[in-house]
Each structure stands twice: as C-alpha cells, then as structure tokens.
C-alpha cells in the first residue's frame, strides 16, 4: 500500500484516508490543508532549514546566481522540473498570501498559519534577493531546454543554471507587476507576525510597480527562451493586480487613481491563472466597491460587473457558463486543468465572504445566489479533487487511498538522495522515468493536472498534461481548504 513508502511516516495513516460513512464519502479537509502546505517544502530550492518536514529532499541550487555575481539561492522549482521560473512563482506566492490575508484566522485555528507564512516567505525572501535595484529583477534560474533533456534529482543537477533578468532596456511589466503583487499581498499577510518584514516587502512592491509602469513590455519578449514554457499574453492584468494589492496594502490614493483611470479591465474573463490575473484584480476592486470605499461607476464599477459575471459563469448561472464535466468538475483546458479549477474556486470563496460581510448576494442572469451557495459550489470542486468523482480518485497526492502514483516529477520519481547518495546523471534518471512503478517518494499535497473533460485520468509519468503538478495548482487550494475546514 502506498502509505508504507518513503516519508509517509510523518502523516498519520488514519488522517490520510477518505472514509465512507453510511455510503457517503467523508473528506478530511484539515488533512488536505496540511498536505497542501507540505507540498511547498518538497518544491524548495536552496539550503533546506532545520525544520524541513519533507525529509526525502536535500539541499540544491546552492550556486544559483553565482555566474551573474548575485545570490539567487532559494525560491521554488515550479513543477516537475528543476527550473525557477519567476512568473508562476510570483503568482503562486500571491495566491498563498491572499489565502492568509482572507483566511488567516482559519489557518491559525488549524495550526497551519505558521506553515503558510513559511511557504510565502520562502518565495518572498528569494524575490528580495532577485530585486537588488529598483529597475532590475532577476526573472529566473535554469535553462528550460537543457533541463527538459535530463531527468535528475535537483540535488544532482548538472544542467546550466542560466540567470535571466529584466531591466530598463529589457523590460517585463508582467513579471515586475506580478512580483509586486506577490510582495504587496505578502506584506499584508506579515503585518502582525513581522511588521518590519512587512514594511520591507511594501518597499520592494512599490519599486517594482513603478518599474512595471515606466518600462512597459512583456518579459517573454525580453527573454525569448521562457516563451515555450511560460509565455505571457500581456501585462495589463499584472499592472491592475499589483495596483489593487498595493492599494489594499497601503491605502495610498495613487493606486486607486491608477485603477480608476486604467483603460481596459479585461472584460469578462474565461479563466484566472498565472497568465491572466484580471479576475483577481476585478475581485479586489469589487471588495472596495461593496464596502463603499470605491465608487461603483466608471472603470471601477466595470471591474465589479466583470468579476461577478465570471463567478456566475463558473457556478453555471451566467450567460456564458464555463464547461462542467458530467462528474461535476469545472473544466477549462486539457493541459493542467486543475490549476484553473482551483484558482476559480478561490475567487468564488473569497467573494462569497465579501458578500456575506456586507449582507449581499450575487446577482446572476438566471437567479440570485447567496454566499452559502457560493461556498457550497467551491466545496463541490474541492470534493471532486479529493475523491468525490466518477473514478473515486484523489487528485491530491498522498491523500486518500487512491491517488496518483506516477507523478511527473524528477525528485519524487528517483530514489531519495538520503537513501542513495550516488549521483544520478542527466540521462541515467530516465531509467527511473520509464519504470512502470509508483514513485519512490510521495509528493504529498501535490495537485496533478487532473482528469480530462470526460473525467478520465491517465496515471502515467510521461503524460505531463495530466500527471504533472505545479506550485500554482495548489496555492489557491490552501485558502479554500482553510475556509471550509
């Protein structure tokens, strides 16, 4: 049974199981929350701390940035590879921070607040290093092409640790804006726990927002090599997202003025993702309108309208509903669909509480929807992910008794360096990749790409569309699980 494999001793077996009570699936949201935050420890790059709980991992990337004369040790590997991509990493941290900002008391009640803050800080410490000057931001470390030619544990990396940056001559408003949003959101999360750190985060967030505004451009135009991995479709959403977070973090009117005068709020979006933050920005603006702090007219009012239309479409009560599988899952894309399902679920959950606080409901084209109904819909998506689906399968690794065994992940699929310290070469690792056996290390808490639009899932390490997990997948789930636990 999977629970006997490496490093599962740190999680009680009983807590990992989904239990049938009177024929109804009973889900342990608290355990799923714990798992979600454990996953980020498995994705850490750099020198691991003494309190590291995922013990099959070791130190890695300890010379990152050295070739460029800068310390870029730390941060997160984005998915099943050994590359640190700045854009999805920043979005991950923004969503983790949003989860703490909105649901910090619930996280504390579940004894997970400190773990959530630690997950955020592992990212923000790296961003501070990556931003040594106001108009300079290091965009990532590692060469995606060569990395994808190898299958190695991060502890054994022999691939180039190429350093990429944006600056005044090679701008990236999307990357600078998203990193600004992450730091601004994190500054709110740390306001009480560490006021000095919170202040430092705001300083960097302001500088990065100014950089993004004054030097417009897409980072993937400045750094073409990231195009095949995380190409950006635009930067207007990141500017709005950053401004909305800075307004919330500082209360400075300049950010409200920016939001009010910005031409183009994106309209009603079809998804909320690492490449498209319009929904998040729209929801933050809508909060201020609901509370009477922003006017409900003009550009600001349009943001609220578009956010609500997206939410109505998600819950199947809009004018252009998002596809829902016969098993009940919101389905957006054949490639790593669950990331979109989860980010939408976070948006729904957050907005439900905004409405509830103000004693309001969501007006959709087909009906009026009250906050408990919104929470119930978000819960239905979580339940599907955790096992209430046609396959009775959990798409969270390490949760329940039937979860993906062959996650597309280098470190998890090769024997731990703690068990066998002999280096695994670039091509040697493919011997592990091609083994038709469960991964030797359980990537607890990881959310895989998930099933197709027919609710089918292929537990195959080579199927990276379905079987690869990524940090952006799980980030929103932390907040939703905290809320419903």
Descriptive keywords:
485 residues; Glycosyltransferase; three-stranded antiparallel sheet; 19 helices; globular; Glyco_hydro_9; signal
Task: Give the radius of gyration.
Answer: 21 Å
What name is given to the CATH topology? Glycosyltransferase
Q: Based on CA inertia axes, which overall geometry fits?
A: globular
**Count of discrete structural domains:** 1
What's the total number of strands?
A: 7
CATH architecture group name: Alpha/alpha barrel
Q: Quaternary state, please?
A: single chain
Overall average residue pLDDT = 94
Largest sheet descriptor: 3 strands, antiparallel
Number of helices: 19
Termini gap: 27 Å
Order of H and E elements: HEEHEHHEHEHHHHHHHHHEEHHHHH
Structural class: mainly alpha
Please report which band the strand proportion falls in: under 5%, 5-15%, 15-25%, 25-35%, 35-45% or over 45%: under 5%
Low-confidence residue ranges = 1-24
Order of strands in the sheet with most strands: 3-4-5
Helix percent band: 40-55%
CATH class: Mainly Alpha
């Amino acid at each position: 049974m999977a629970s006997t494999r490496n490093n599962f001793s740190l999680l009680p077996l009983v807590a990992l199981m989904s239990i049938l009570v009177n024929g109804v699936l009973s889900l342990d949201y608290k355990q799923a929350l714990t798992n979600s935050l454990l996953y980020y420890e498995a994705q850490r790059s750099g020198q691991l701390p003494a309190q590291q709980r995922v013990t099959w991992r070791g130190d890695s990337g300890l010379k990152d940035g050295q070739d460029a004369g800068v310390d870029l040790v730390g941060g997160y590997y984005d998915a099943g590879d050994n590359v640190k991509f700045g854009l999805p990493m920043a979005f991950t941290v923004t969503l983790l921070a949003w989860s703490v900002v909105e649901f910090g008391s619930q996280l504390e009640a579940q004894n997970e607040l400190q773990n959530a803050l630690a997950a955020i800080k592992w990212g923000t410490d790296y961003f501070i290093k990556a931003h040594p000057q106001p108009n300079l931001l290091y965009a990532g470390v590692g060469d995606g092409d060569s990395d994808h030619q190898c299958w190695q544990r991060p502890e054994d990396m022999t691939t180039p640790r190429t350093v990429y940056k944006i600056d005044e001559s090679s701008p990236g408003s999307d990357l600078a804006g998203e990193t600004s949003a992450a730091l601004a959101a994190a500054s709110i999360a740390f306001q009480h726990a560490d006021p000095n750190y919170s202040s430092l985060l705001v300083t960097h967030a302001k500088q990065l927002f100014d950089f993004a505004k004054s030097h417009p451009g897409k980072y993937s135009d400045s750094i073409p090599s990231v195009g095949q991995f995380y190409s950006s479709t635009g930067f207007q959403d990141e500017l709005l997202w950053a401004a909305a977070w800075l307004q919330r973090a500082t209360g400075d009117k300049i950010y409200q003025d920016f939001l009010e005068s910005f031409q183009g709020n994106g309209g009603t979006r079809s998804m909320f993702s690492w490449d498209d933050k319009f929904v998040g920005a729209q929801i933050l603006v809508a909060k201020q309108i609901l509370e009477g702090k922003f006017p409900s007219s003009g550009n600001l009012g349009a943001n609220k309208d578009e956010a609500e239309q997206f939410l109505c479409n998600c819950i199947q009560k809009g004018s252009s509903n998002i596809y829902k599988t016969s098993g009940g899952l919101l389905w957006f894309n054949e490639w790593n669909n669950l990331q979109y399902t989860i980010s939408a679920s976070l948006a729904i959950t957050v907005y439900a509480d905004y409405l509830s606080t103000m004693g309001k409901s969501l007006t959709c084209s087909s009906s009026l929807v009250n906050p408990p109904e919104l929470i119930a819909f978000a819960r239905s998506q979580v339940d599907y992910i955790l096992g209430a689906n046609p396959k009775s399968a959990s798409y969270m690794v390490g949760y329940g008794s039937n979860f993906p065994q062959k996650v597309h992940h280098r470190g998890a699929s090769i024997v731990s360096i703690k068990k066998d310290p002999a280096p695994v070469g670039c091509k040697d690792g493919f011997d592990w990749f091609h083994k038709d056996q469960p991964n030797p290390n359980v990537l607890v808490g990881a959310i895989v790409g998930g099933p197709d639009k027919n609710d089918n899932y292929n537990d195959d390490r080579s199927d990276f569309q379905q079987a690869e997990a990524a940090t952006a997948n799980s980030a929103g789930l932390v907040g939703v699980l905290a809320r419903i636990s």
